[in-house]
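Problem: given the chain below (629 residues), write out its structure.
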Amino acid sequence: MTVTEPSEAEPSEAERIAGRRWRPTATYPDPQDDGPTAKLEKFIDAMVATGQTGQIFGEHGIGKTSTFVSYVPKRFPGTTLVVVPAANLTPDDLLVNAPVRDDHSGELVLRQLVMRQLVPGRPFVLLIDDSLQAGSTVQSQLMQIACNWTLGEYDLRELGCVGVFLTDNESLAETSVRRSDLAILDRMVTIRLGPNDTAWRQALAARFPDWDLREVFREWASLSPRLRYLLSPRTLQHVLDCARAGFPLAWGLPLLNGARLSLTEEGKDGEPGRDRTADVLDAIAAAVGASNPATVTDPVRRILRAAMTHRWAVLLQGPPGCGKTEITKQIAREETGRAPVYFSLPVTNVEDLCVPVPAPDGSLSAMLARSLLDPEPKVLVWDEYNRPKDKATFAKLMEVTQEWTLAGRRIPNLRAQVALQNPPYHLGRKLLVAANNVAQASRFTISYEVRPDDIPANEWLISTYGETAETVLEWWKNDIDDEGRDWVTKRTLERLIKLHEADMPLEPGLIYLGDGEYAPVPLSALEARLAGRKNIGLVEIARNRASWEARLAAAAETSAEGTDDTDLVHQVFSNAEVSQLERHLDLVARLLPYLPPKLRATYVVGQTPERQRFWVAALARMAELSVRR
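Solution.
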């Protein structure tokens, strides 16, 4: 539940827009009309003026809630907007019977306590968001409010309520229920909205004041109804956020049940038609003068740092054991100076996050977990995001990821939220993860599919386990195929290292599949490397530098493309970690002149900044040594 009043934490974007005076933007350089300009704004005015309950149906992400957040404070000065995310509610959140001391008799008596946000002490408009997603008991409470403007023994008008609204998506794919009781439906005024009926364009213009978004809006309006539904205004905002940060615009498209949402037309008989994702996103990038790269170097760390800079919620999806959690914790410590606030959803209850408790003034107050109220800068990590312990806990997270509040209370100094999850399938096996819908999936500014080589876990293994890790990594990079590398995660590599150091057999370190079967990865080459029978890597080349220099010189004279010796050294250089290369800078600089220029170019182009810095230094050292010769 959200109340649009000043608090100790940062306001949301919509609140910032609502709370400041009008400023010209590149999209709207002239002042806008102070009165209602959108259909929803006019509806809000009418319902408040007539004292009727307004029911609003519209697709996800078209700006229903944000229109209320920006318009109500501007249109009705002195009036508070109370937003109740109904999907998050439990029966005791709004109203509960509790023992209190009677002022006259001094005895303990049962008294109904109402949620604190419903007694703000000033006129308020109540917005019940996603009411069709609430449980049956909560539905009954909400319908009492909608029909009579009462809750239990409380008359909301007497508490200051001047308007009651319900917003929902009619699609059964997102709510699973419909409101059909005529006794209830006869108490409300109902409208259906499309994306042209809310003020989302003005909100985007204010978010990107230096970009003229009129061409973006024209491009969006030219799309088919299906593509406009997929590229909702909320998702369009995320795409523009990616463009602003220099990321691929596709990262702003949500991951729906583990797969990237594509902007695909609907063909005949409902079959998928033309995929227009690339050309639509390229057109949006061109409209704002931004690039749309296919990828960027070091993507995971850059995404995490951008999230903590811009106050984003981001989703990282990757296979088990690839290092998602550890790198998130590492970047959070680097950016905030402290460990993140961490919750693993398979073992997290609603009560671990917040519980309603009686307050001295006779209302219900939300008590949050201590870690959430720490005033220091914080990053929230939701691990195993698609493996929630129960639906109630997952529903609570919908409020946090969208509104950055919990039970209506802002989480102070919250810098970013990072959700981590596994894909539904990996290595041909189904993982026990929950499904989502597009309304849930589109809550994240960036949704990224992590690949094992996106995370620099290799450097951590080397710094922790030294030469043994180097040997195991050389096996992992050179001796097994891509499928084998998928089976051997960085977590598995660490187990293999520890087993070797404990002089134990290696096979039990592989993933166990049941019935005596382990992951199908041959270990004979690793055992040979660890036994010292095969060890072609930087260490071996360094021990025999003169021999390798002579072999590469001969290869360069034999062919401009080099020989097998050239390819072997190139592979060693390409696969080595930066820390390994730095320890052998002179060796690398002495061998570089014998490698074909096209191979040397691959060490710099498209590499991470750390690798690029090393290779620039190595080339400089190569030039220095050639002068001495």
